[in-house]
Design brief:
Blueprint (H helix, E strand, L loop, with lengths): L1 H14 L11 E19 L4 E20 L4 E20 L2 E21 L1 E2 L4 E3 L2 E14 L6 E12 L1 E5 L4 E6 L2 E11 L9 E11 L6 E8 L5
Antiparallel strand pairs: 1-2, 1-13, 2-3, 3-4, 4-7, 5-6, 6-9, 7-8, 8-11, 9-10, 10-13, 11-12
Length: 228
């Protein structure tokens, strides 16, 4: 899917001819979509033993946005991000299942952001973005370890390099890969009949990520924009 997005983006750039200028007060609507999937299969055999394991991870993020240009190069905006993630793990020894677990999470995050535009050509802009995401949702586990549903609160801040290319007078496509980030996630699960204890866990991480999994693509529509 990443290859399809990259090919579509390059084709769009090669076959479009609009020359665009951003106007103060212009409105921008649009959004981004990110999708990643990962799977691992391990098989180990000896003369008297065999071990198999399968791991799967799927991630989907949808992020509709709206913003206004305070100057000809500075955008202030806000959005809502929906994230869905599914993880599953299955293992067996000598053909007998010994572990089968899965976890699903669903989050809704409020996303204020600022973006700066630097013109590279008449159509192409370098447009780094500073994002703040804050919100929460649920995470549910099933299997032999924990079957409880937890409440999740997430706080994130990141800076992403981005390229924005105007396809026509009003439409643009953008693509980003990589980020400088700080993430903090807190999860709480109440005690029940099976687990006689509360679960309260906080994870935080920060760093620089330029993996292919950080690639995303978006489309925007510009209102009240001056075109020359």
């Amino acid at each position: 899917m990443k290859r399809f997005f990259i090919l579509s983006l390059l084709t769009t750039i090669l076959f479009s001819e609009a020359n665009c200028q951003i106007q103060k007060g212009a409105l921008r609507t649009g959004g981004r979509i990110s999708f990643n999937t990962k799977s691992d299969h391990l098989e180990r055999k000896t003369s008297d033993d065999s071990f198999l394991s399968d791991f799967e991870n799927d991630f989907l993020a949808l992020n509709p946005q709206i913003g206004v240009f305070l100057t000809t190069s500075f955008l202030l905006g806000a959005g809502i991000e929906y994230e869905y993630q599914y993880d599953s793990f299955r293992s067996s020894n000598n053909g007998s299942l010994n572990n089968l677990t899965s976890e699903k999470s669903s989050l809704i995050l409020f996303n204020p952001y600022v973006q700066k535009f630097y013109a590279l050509t008449d159509n192409l802009f370098f447009s780094p973005t500073l994002n703040l995401l804050i919100g929460g949702g649920t995470r549910k586990s099933s299997g032999s370890i924990d079957n409880r549903e937890g409440r999740v609160f997430a706080y994130r801040i990141n800076v992403t390099p981005e390229l924005t290319y105007f396809i026509s007078e009003k439409w643009a496509v953008s693509a980003s890969i990589g980020r400088i980030f700080y993430n903090q996630t807190n999860e709480k699960r109440d005690r029940d009949d099976t687990y006689n204890s509360d679960y309260d866990n906080t994870d935080s991480e920060y760093g620089i990520d330029f993996s292919l999994n950080s690639f995303s693509v978006g489309f925007q529509y510009y209102l009240k924009n001056k075109v020359e």
